[in-house]
Write a structure and sequence with these properties.
The protein contains ten helices and no strands. With 196 residues, it is mainly alpha-helical.
Length: 196
């Protein structure tokens, strides 16, 4: 199955992603990972379940990359940090990646000033054609996914805000671009390089 609703667990989460990057760089795993995330409440969240879910999703986004990328996440400032986190989210979620590649790119090509929210439902219908195994998500799940995707785009600079939905060109921060090129991350690069 190509498309999953994993994005409902959170947008880019820069502060929490820095924590996860640091834990990965220190080689923390197993019981030590659980203690750091749940017992010590590294993310300062209200429940252990939230901490566990957030830790799992952010770890899943970062683990496919290597320590130099984790260092980028841990040490970078805005916008480099957001670009690295968007790259990780795109690699982890083709639902986000394909939206950038197919819908956001098309809006730029049309010189559209905005990214209307109604494009999301049309996009999901297209996803079903690309992935017949994709489940039928409830309206609330579809709405949450749209909200998360649009927040990711706002946090990384593609949208002025989630209120105006005004499109803005984004040019990848050089260290993120160089890392992705050096690892031949063609899909991620294609999805992130949609600006005219």
């Amino acid at each position: 199955m190509r498309y999953t609703p994993a994005l409902t667990h959170g947008a880019l989460k820069p502060a929490e992603s820095r924590i996860v990057a640091e834990l990965l760089l220190r080689g923390v795993q197993g019981e030590a990972w659980r203690r750091a995330i749940e017992d010590e409440n590294a993310f300062q969240v209200k429940s252990r379940r939230t901490a566990r879910n957030l830790g799992a999703i952010l770890k899943a986004r970062l683990v496919p990359f290597e320590p130099p990328f984790w260092e980028l996440v841990r040490d970078s400032a805005t916008p480099q940090l957001q670009h690295a986190l968007l790259a990780a989210a795109v690699k982890h979620s083709p639902l986000l990646g394909d939206f950038l590649d197919l819908v956001v790119r098309d809006q730029f090509r049309r010189f559209s000033p905005t990214l209307p929210a109604n494009l999301w439902e049309d996009y999901l219908l297209g996803c079903r054609g690309r992935d017949p195994e994709m489940p039928w998500w409830s309206e609330s799940t579809r709405r949450k996914l749209r909200s998360t995707v649009y927040l990711c785009l706002a946090q990384s600079g593609f949208l002025e805000s989630t209120h105006s939905l005004k499109l803005q060109p984004v040019f990848l921060a050089t260290p993120v671009l160089h890392y992705l090129e050096s690892r031949d991350e063609r899909y991620v690069l294609r999805c992130l390089q949609v600006s005219p």
